[in-house]
Amino acid sequence: MDAQELQRIAGDRAVDLPGADLEQRVDPDWSVYKVRGKVFLLMTNMPASPVVILKADPDNAAALREQYPDITPGYHMNKRHWITVEGGGTVDEKLVKELVTDSYRLVVGGLPKSERPVDPTTHDHSA
Question: Is-annotated flag, keyword Calcium (predicted)?
Answer without folding.
Answer: no
